[in-house]
């Protein structure tokens, strides 16, 4: 118990509640990036003191672990001597970039702006695989109006090499300062830093500095990081030019003019374009794109809509994912003021050609800045459009708070203009209690309204405790006007008032089967703006936990109410009639630890559903057979019955990902999906030859097959679409 109290005191220390001396990073020379960690420069640096984060927080490592850091005028270096008494137990489950699940690994986090909110993660495994991602919002978030906290598709230029010997595994990471954005004072730079080693077979995570599991992913929170100091670094301002060439063939079946059958429409694709990245200053980057193409992006996940609101599909295109956090402006639930999928994609997922655009991101003195402008081409009946976004954010009051604003525009060649602005703030009130405020308003010249009113506005307020220990709470409210419609945003529902209360208690355990477990009570309601009647509401309770072996689970019970002002269409031709409905749902879920080579998650969601019953059973097995072959399956079965109308739902939804790799450069990923509600089987196969960083050959095959050709008349074709594309990109660095 005393050890655990000491660990929490250390966490408070790193959160800035107590003082701590920054760590001066040692200057090094003569480092050869080969993964052997045998240079005299490394031996001259004391290793960082590591402790367990899990499964036994604060305990000593079970294996000798030496992590060191150093730098020269061009690079930041990290080394690991990961000794292991059972070297055959060292795991490397993948040879594919950005895929480390179930592997031993070395991971470092750098809060390069020293803002206690954002940072970059760099990870390598015994196989030398690299993974990088960007984090923001201090790796935490609320439930109503706060942002998510990670961009897992971030990529930048850096290197890692590893070796495995009978003593263990050894690694060296080299990160160019030109790949980082930071602020210096006469060459002196302060950053936040954390390091960790994962011993996968033991579910053991070692961290520096000593951080306790007080929130999810607490070891990635910039506000808990150790401050480190560099002297005399000034990055070079490099220019990256990445042209591409693309060719291929696409065949789509289209209904003929008479509506009696389908005829193939063929298109031979030939295209070329380029992306340009320029480091304007040490903390400001400009990106330009011409004739942008996203052929190598993974296909969207198939979904079935069992709600009366629009489905949300996340962004998967690399250009829009990079530095995406600066443009993040959420206004409750899934709604957001800026949603990049509005650019270059139609509502049904068709690609709209993009002439080009630019993006400027970074920091100017104390301001975070994001500027984006894109121009699309005309497509069929859609006119050419211009999309613009400006984002500003400034730290105020303390190192954990900011205020900001955003402006968006969507203009087309036919004179239509949609403009929007937003104001937001995140205020750390005290300790781990945060207040989030967001206001947005939209203006559309096709639907003029009173500028001074609330009908075209949306307001979200939330007060919550971002800590997983003892008492926790969330209080939130949202107002959304009927006319709120951001042209480059996403809105799940509008014309309502919403209130929510959530209280919880979390127990952290030093011994026993659980690392932590939490009990939670919740309640929320949507009210109509006109009349004030209840549109939807939920009350319930939940219990969640994480075991000492890092398995996790959940049990929940929910009482729901829904008022339907119009018929609600379901899959497979069913409908829910107009009316009011009370129903109850129960859910149980259990997920095995991600570090297991063969694992699965199981979930069961069942109970009454409007005027019937609905059961959803899900399983998510994964098998990392070797570093050359992995399987990931997501499967759900949905069965519903509505006796008053003798209607049934009975369909399967499956997503299978198969990853194969010959080595770190050559890999293939196959993504196969079956949607039983739409009787559609799709394939997305992507072959990648990564000759070196920034030089890639992609071969992509997509197809869609109708599994029930007699579902409608005229008879559907066997293959709805097929495409085969080859794309080559090459980055030149100046």
Give a structural overview:
This protein has three helices and 43 strands. The chain is mainly beta. The protein folds into three domains: 2-231, Sandwich (Immunoglobulin-like); 323-494; 503-678, no CATH class. The strands form four sheets. The chain has a 24-stranded antiparallel β-barrel. Strands 1, 3, 6, 7, 8, 9, 12, 13 and 14 form a nine-stranded mixed β-sheet that branches. Strands 2-4-5-11-10 form a five-stranded mixed β-sheet, with no helix packed on it. A hairpin with a 4-residue loop joins strand 37 (629-642) and strand 38 (647-661).
Give me a quick take on this structure.
Helix content is 3%, strand content 54%. 36% of the residues are buried. It is mainly β and 734 residues long.
Q: Which helices and strands, and how do they pair?
A:
Layout: H1 2-14, E1 23-24, E2 26-27, H2 40-43, E3 51-54, E4 65-71, E5 75-83, E6 105-111, E7 119-124, E8 130-135, E9 150-151, E10 159-165, E11 168-176, E12 188-199, E13 204-208, E14 226-231, E15 239-255, E16 262-281, E17 284-292, H3 318-321, E18 354-364, E19 367-376, E20 385-395, E21 402-412, E22 417-430, E23 433-444, E24 457-465, E25 470-480, E26 496-508, E27 514-528, E28 534-547, E29 552-564, E30 568-569, E31 575-576, E32 579-591, E33 598-599, E34 601-609, E35 612-619, E36 622-626, E37 629-642, E38 647-661, E39 666-675, E40 680-692, E41 695-706, E42 719-730, E43 732-733
Parallel strand pairs: 1-14, 2-4
Antiparallel strand pairs: 3-13, 4-5, 5-11, 6-7, 6-12, 7-8, 8-9, 10-11, 12-13, 12-14, 15-16, 15-42, 15-43, 16-17, 17-18, 18-19, 19-20, 20-21, 21-22, 22-23, 23-24, 24-25, 25-26, 26-27, 27-28, 28-29, 29-32, 30-31, 32-34, 33-36, 34-35, 35-37, 36-37, 37-38, 38-39, 39-40, 40-41, 41-42
């Amino acid at each position: 118990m005393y050890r655990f109290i000491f660990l929490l005191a250390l966490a408070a220390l790193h959160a800035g509640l107590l003082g701590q001396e920054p760590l001066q990073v040692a200057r090094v020379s003569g480092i050869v990036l080969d993964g052997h960690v045998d240079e005299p420069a490394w031996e001259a640096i004391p290793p960082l003191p590591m402790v367990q984060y899990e499964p036994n927080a604060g305990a000593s490592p079970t294996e000798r672990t030496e992590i060191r850091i150093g730098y020269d005028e061009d690079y930041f270096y990290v080394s690991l001597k990961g000794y292991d008494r059972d070297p055959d137990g060292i795991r490397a489950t993948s040879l594919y970039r950005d895929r480390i699940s179930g592997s031993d690994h070395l991971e470092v986090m750098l809060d390069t702006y020293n803002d206690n909110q954002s940072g970059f993660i760099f990870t390598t495994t015994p196989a030398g695989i690299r993974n990088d991602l960007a984090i923001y919002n201090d790796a935490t978030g609320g439930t109503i109006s706060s942002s998510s906290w990670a961009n897992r598709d971030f990529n930048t230029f850096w290197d890692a090499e590893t070796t495995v010997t009978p003593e263990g595994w050894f690694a060296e990471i080299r990160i160019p300062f030109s790949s980082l954005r930071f602020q210096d004072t006469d060459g002196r730079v302060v950053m936040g830093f954390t390091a960790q080693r994962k011993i996968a077979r033991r579910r053991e995570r070692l961290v520096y500095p000593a951080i306790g599991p007080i929130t999810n992913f607490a070891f990635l929170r910039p506000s808990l990081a150790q401050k480190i100091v560099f002297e005399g670094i000034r990055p070079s301002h490099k220019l990256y030019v990445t042209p591409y060439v693309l060719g291929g063939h696409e065949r789509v079946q289209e209904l003929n003019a008479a509506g009696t059958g389908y005829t193939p429409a063929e298109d031979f694709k030939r295209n070329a374009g380029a992306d340009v990245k320029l480091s304007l200053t040490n903390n400001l980057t400009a990106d330009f794109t011409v004739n942008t193409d996203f052929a190598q992006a993974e296909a969207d996940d198939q979904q079935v809509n069992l709600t009366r609101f629009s489905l949300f599909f996340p962004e998967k295109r690399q250009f829009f994912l990079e530095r995406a956090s600066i443009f993040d402006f959420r206004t409750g639930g899934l709604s957001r003021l800026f949603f990049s999928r509005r650019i270059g994609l139609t509502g049904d997922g068709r690609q709209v050609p993009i002439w080009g655009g630019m993006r400027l991101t970074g920091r100017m003195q104390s301001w975070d800045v994001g500027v984006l402008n894109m121009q699309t081409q005309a497509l069929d009946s859609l006119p050419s459009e211009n999309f613009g976004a400006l984002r500003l954010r400034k730290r105020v009051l303390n190192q954990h708070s900011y205020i900001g604003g955003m402006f968006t525009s969507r203009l087309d060649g036919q004179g239509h203009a949609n403009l929007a602005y937003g104001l937001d703030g995140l205020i750390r009130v005290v300790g781990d209690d945060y207040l989030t405020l967001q206001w947005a308003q939209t203006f559309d010249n096709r639907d003029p309204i009173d500028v001074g009113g609330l009908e075209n506005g949306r307001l979200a307020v939330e007060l919550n405790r971002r800590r997983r220990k003892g008492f926790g709470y969330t209080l939130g409210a949202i107002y959304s006007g009927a006319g709120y419609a951001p042209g480059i945003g996403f809105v799940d529902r509008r014309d309502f008032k919403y209130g929510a209360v959530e209280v919880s208690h979390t127990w952290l355990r030093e011994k026993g089967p659980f690392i932590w477990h939490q009990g939670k009570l919740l309640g929320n309601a949507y009210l109509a703006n006109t009349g004030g009647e209840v549109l939807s509401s939920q009350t319930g309770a939940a219990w969640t936990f994480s075991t000492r072996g890092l398995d996790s689970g959940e049990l929940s019970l929910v009482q729901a109410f829904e008022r339907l002002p119009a018929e609600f269409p379901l899959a497979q031709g069913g409908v829910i009639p107009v009316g009011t409905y009370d129903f109850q749902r129960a859910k149980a879920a259990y997920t095995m630890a991600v570090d297991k080579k063969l694992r699965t998650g199981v979930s069961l969601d069942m109970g009454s559903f409007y005027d019937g019953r609905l059961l959803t059973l899900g399983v998510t097995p994964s098998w990392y057979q070797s570093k050359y072959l992995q399987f990931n399956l997501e499967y759900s079965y949905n069965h519903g019955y509505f006796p008053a109308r003798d209607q049934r739902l009975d369909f399967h939804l499956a997503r299978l990902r198969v990853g194969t790799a010959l080595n770190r450069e050559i890999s293939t990923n196959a993504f196969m999906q079956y949607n039983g509600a739409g009787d559609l089987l799709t394939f997305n196969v992507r072959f990648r030859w990564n000759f070196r960083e920034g030089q890639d050959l992609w071969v992509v095959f997509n197809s869609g097959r109708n599994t029930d050709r007699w579902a409608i008349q005229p008879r559907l074709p066997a293959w709805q679409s097929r495409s085969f594309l080859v794309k080559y990109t090459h980055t030149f660095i100046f």
